Amino acid sequence: MAKPCALIRTSEENVKAQQNRQRAERGVALVIALFTLMLISVVATALILMAGNETALKGNYKSAMHAFYDARAGLEEGRGRLWARNPNSIASCVLPGGEQMMPVGQVCYILNPSAGEVVNPVNPLDPSNPYADTEYQAEWGFAVPSGPCAAIPTPPCYNTVTSNSPIASANIAGPLYKWVRITSRTEHSGKINVDGLNSDDNVNPLFYDGMQQLLSSGGQPVPGATQVLTITALAVTPYGSRRMVQYTVALAGSAAALSNFPSALTLDGNGVSFTGPSGGNGGSGTFPIVGNDINAPSGTQSGISAIGYTNSSDGTIVSSAATPSSNYMSPQNVPNVGLVSLPLLLQTPSGLQNLVQSVTQNADLVLNPPQGASADQQSLPSAMSASNPMIVVVNGDFNLTHAGGASAFTGYGLLLVTGTLHYDPDDSWYGVILVIGKGVFDGSHPGKGGQINGTVFVANTTDNSGNVLTSLGPASFSSTGGGNGIQYSSNWVKATQALLPYQVRSFREIAQTTP
Amino acid sequence: MSTEAIEMKKRKHGTAGFSLVELLVGTILFTIVTGIAFSLLMSAQLRYQGESTVTEAFQQANVALDQIVRDVHSAGYPPMSSLSATVANNHPDWYALPFAWTPNYPTTPCTVGVGGTCTLPGEYDLIVEADLGNSQGVQWIRYSLQTTTLMRAVVPKVAFKDPVAETSGSSVLVPYLENVMNGSNSLPIFSYVCDGGATQQPCAGGSTQTTSTIREVNISLMVRSLQPDPQTHQYRTITLNGQAMRFNPNQ
Question: In terms of CB atoms within 10 Å, which of B48, B62, B74, B86 comes out highest?
């Protein structure tokens, strides 16, 4: 009886035995768990590595594309704000003194820092400056100007404006370009040899006449051409992608052609005809044509010929019809009626058709009257005014004759008519009138009181079927008198020119390395 | 047998370890589990190797595609209108046409697209003209598929010379991207979109669709992996598509 309990396992012993058995099995479970865990870890790591790799590749590509298009957005902002009609025009940054052209050494920056960031492109010597404009030195051969421009700038100097692409009220950051730089362009900065003579001219800005770039000289603008500007933009994304792109821009080719008319009335072509008021007095007025610039400074005299023709063979016909000479006035030493030379763009039917196309592309309104019908001033926008001149293109005939019983009409801006322009001297137009195509200006309407302030250009480029001629045909101008005629106004010519936007002449990308 | 002996025997039995059957079953189970684990591990490893080769091919194709896109972006820089007309006539190597062509370069433009007269630009051959800003002036940059290798040549533009001949030498036309399978799959590398009035449309050999009207180049690169897939023993191919716009305007 000493050990009666030894034969029977107590419940406590049973539990212990079970625990021993479980403990023995626990080791196997651990090993299996470890292997399983290791397996899953390896597979997961491989998947993460692959996914990470792919994500990085795609991320790099996305970031690079982001930077590229951000930089292009900067270029477009710069180009858009160069336009005089842009409500956020940067004319005061580019031409702070109201100069005729942007001189070499003068720089305009549009800055676009992110929140809390400083963008200072004019400090290239600071190696910690991530947005330094080191490209300027590479292009121009001298350091970016370090001092801001005065009210009347004396280059080298720079101006800055801020970007208007972010919309703070809507919490829209806008494109992530850092700066846009606008400069003039020279042979040296563009690494081109425009004139074939001196490939390294770094003094005279380049100009564009609608067909070619030309080198200015003596710091003077090239007549009949507009200045070529270079726009450069740098974009840097938060992921470090850097892209720099560059435009060269100039006013639309048509603007270049409009920049320097040689006469108040220009008859472009061969065999042109001019018919003035008989005896110089047609009814209620003489319809004078005056080349003296009405905007010349007081006490000075400047201007152009009253009537210009481009083929010397037409001189006798036009001159003999333009009588009495007192009706056709021009400044001293400028012929009242004379042979004039035109920019290349205006010398050929194809060039003039390009001009028509360019103007049409930028028109505020294009009228297409049905065959055999004419459009008239009733179709013109009511918003047109002296402070809001417009570009109107009429593909066909146009009656500037206050049709429909309306009172005398006054229009503003650029009027391009490809058919016949019927003009009533009751009406007025401030700006430029181009009659290109059929090339007929018909002023055989009675009237008085109206005037064309600006200039008129007539050219015959198409036949009666609308086919483009191989050479310019006989443009025609006729007036039976009345009204105040044509008065040359350089201000209105410039205002009309400013209606046309800057166009891209070239694009390139500048390779970047991360600083 | 005393109860004590019986108890001792039972106790010995309880601490005797695994029986042979248990050991065998355990070993077999362990072998199966570890076998599965290692086979999965091996499978994952092979998959990783396979993906790596594809990724490498993808990376190389991506770099090539990016370079082609950049070159097309700059095509036509600087344009003819950058120079005075007289200088441009005398020095055609000082400006860039967007794309060179054959036959009859530079006198008579050919028409691009199926049914057109151009043999170059073609579906597998393209020559871009551009100044890349590397102080070499205007250059001809050629991409040409030869069997399964996309070749690239970069040479200075030479006035009144044939761009195809100038870019065909074995020392200038060098391998750029290997294992390009477009040819054997009849997948054009280059297809073109031309300016056409207000809209753009695929170049289809129309009489006005000359090289100067090419506005976009669509690029497709079908690239085979460098090594066969370790699991399937088959080569894998990937296709990258890109779109490159010519930003320089017609002059």
Answer: B74
The C-alpha R_g of chain A, in whole angstroms, comes to 36
How do residues A241-268 score in pLDDT, each as one tens digit?
999 999 999 987 777 777 778 999 999 9
CA distance A233 to A244: 6
Q: Residue A7's pLDDT is what?
A: 52
Chain Cα centroid distance, residue A346: 21
Residue with tokens 């999965």: B40
Q: Is B66 on the interface with A (CB under 8 A)?
A: yes
Helices (H), A103-224: 135-140, 187-190
Q: How far apart are CA A439 and CA A418, in angstroms?
A: 7
Contacts of A504 in chain B (CB under 8 A): 247-249
Buried b (16+ CB within 10 A) or exposed e, A161-188: bebbbbeeeeeeebbbbbbbbbbbbbbb
Judged by CB atoms closer than 8 Å, whether chains meet at B84 and A214 is answered as yes
**pLDDT band for position A282 (50/70/90)?**
very low
Rounded Cα distance between A454 and A488, Å, is: 5
Contact assessment for residue B222 and residue B187, using Cβ atoms and an 8 Å cutoff: yes
Banded model confidence at residue B205, pLDDT cuts 50, 70, 90: confident
Q: How far is CA B113 from CA A466, B102, B109, B205, B214, in A?
A: 31, 13, 13, 5, 10
Residue of chain A whose Cα is closest to the Cα of B247: A507
Work out the average pLDDT over A277-286.
57
